[in-house]
Amino acid sequence: MNGTRLQKIIYQKGYGKVAEKVGLLYSAYRPTAAINPSPISNATLLGTLDAQFYVDDKLLKPEEYGKVTWKGWFDASDSQQGDYLIGPQGTFYIVSLQALIPPLMVWCTQVVNFYRPPPQSNLGSNTYGGTTLANQVEYMAGWPAAIVETNRRREGDISLPGDMLHPWWHVYLPASINTVQIESADIMTDNLGRRFIVSSAEKTPLGWRLLAQQALT
């Protein structure tokens, strides 16, 4: 018996068997590209499996506001960090597969896209180089992510009496595509039609952790 064999037994005979009894059917996806094919598509579908998700291992806590991480009970023998599971409880992605404990998951709330303005191609005088709807280049599309509001707020540049404070958000999504680099000042949009400016982008061993300011007009 070694660690690899023990881990497989825990997944198959432990969490997998529990999921067969109390779990629900989920579709598993593994993104292969940032934009094409879409992370959630027939091209990235791995298959289905029984799974159940809980906030804690004792099953005593219900879902809470702002709770991003969950524990997954399912047979993760063939799973990888960054895989998505979509089913009755929502959309989750695998944050980590640590030895001897349940997979750590992030519960996704929205689907996001990322854009970047094209680089300046001429020396000296150039046209406006900021991001506009006409010149922005989409480099990630259709990625489920967790978007959680922070307590941070900022006034607008003009600061009129009726102006609303600009909210800031934490954004979590997988870093499974190594060729992608999210950068500060990139633009992010979600399926609700909101537009965000990435303030900071940290690629951690658990995935992307972003701080983004919502753009209000």
Overview of this structure, please?
The chain has one helix at 3-22; strands at residues 24-29, 45-54, 69-73, 84-87, 90-96, 104-108, 110-116, 137-154, 166-173, 187-190, 195-204, 207-214. With 217 residues, the protein is mostly beta strands. It has 2 domains: 3-108, Thrombin, subunit H; 110-214, Thrombin, subunit H (Beta Barrel), CATH 2.40.10. The strands form 2 sheets. Strands 1-2-3-6-5-4 form a 6-stranded antiparallel barrel. A 6-stranded antiparallel beta barrel has the order 7-8-9-12-11-10.
Short description:
This protein has one helix and twelve strands; from the N terminus they run H-E-E-E-E-E-E-E-E-E-E-E-E. The chain is mainly β.
How would the global form be characterised? globular
Q: Could you give the count of β-strands?
A: 12
Strand order of the largest sheet: 1-2-3-6-5-4
β-strand amount: 35-45%
The appropriate CATH architecture of the largest domain is Beta Barrel
- CATH level 3 topology of the largest domain: Thrombin, subunit H
Distance between the termini: 61 Å
How large is the count of helical segments? 1
Rg calc: 20 Å
Mean pLDDT: 86
CATH class of the largest domain: Mainly Beta
Largest sheet: 6 strands, antiparallel, barrel
Set out the fold topology:
Blueprint: H1 3-22, E1 24-29, E2 45-54, E3 69-73, E4 84-87, E5 90-96, E6 104-108, E7 110-116, E8 137-154, E9 166-173, E10 187-190, E11 195-204, E12 207-214
Antiparallel strand pairs: 1-2, 1-4, 2-3, 3-6, 4-5, 5-6, 7-8, 7-10, 8-9, 9-12, 10-11, 11-12
